[in-house]
Amino acid sequence: MTQPTVESVWDYPRPPRVEPSAELVEVELGGQVVARTTTSWRVLETSHPPTYYLPRSAFSPGTLRPTAGSSFCEWKGSASYFDLVSGEHVAARAGWTYEHPTAGFEVIAGAVAVMAAQVDRCTVDGEVVVPQPGGFYGGWITSRVVGPFKAVPGSLGW
């Protein structure tokens, strides 16, 4: 059996790049799979584990609830947010999107990324992801990537 390629986040570029992914990506909330796709995009940036962007069609109807607020990324532009909803379970501002991303990131326009720490679990090809530390960045750590990762203690100046 072939071993999967391990990627160092220190080999990822800055500014980041986007690449398509055919991995099976699932998001669970309230004991339910609320998103499932084999068509997503990974944003790869130096020192960060990949951030997965899923097409909106991957999300179950009623799962994405637009919410107030925005943020700005120096690379992708202005983001807007979603609460993720599954029955009585709400993950506040756990999803975000770039409706009109900057040049080079057009492929993720309208796609939704999820903060893994705010939902029950996220998986990539069946492997449970570990959320990027710190609660600010949305990277997903799997056995496919190695760090050290931005947002661990002592990484403020990276």
From TrEMBL:
InterPro entries: DUF427, DUF427_sf. Residues 25-116 form the DUF427 domain. Signal peptide: none annotated. It comes from the Bacteria. PANTHER family: DUF427 DOMAIN-CONTAINING PROTEIN (PTHR43058:SF1), SLR0655 PROTEIN (PTHR43058). This is DUF427 domain-containing protein. It comes from Nocardioides conyzicola. The lineage of its organism: Bacteria, Bacillati, Actinomycetota, Actinomycetes, Propionibacteriales.
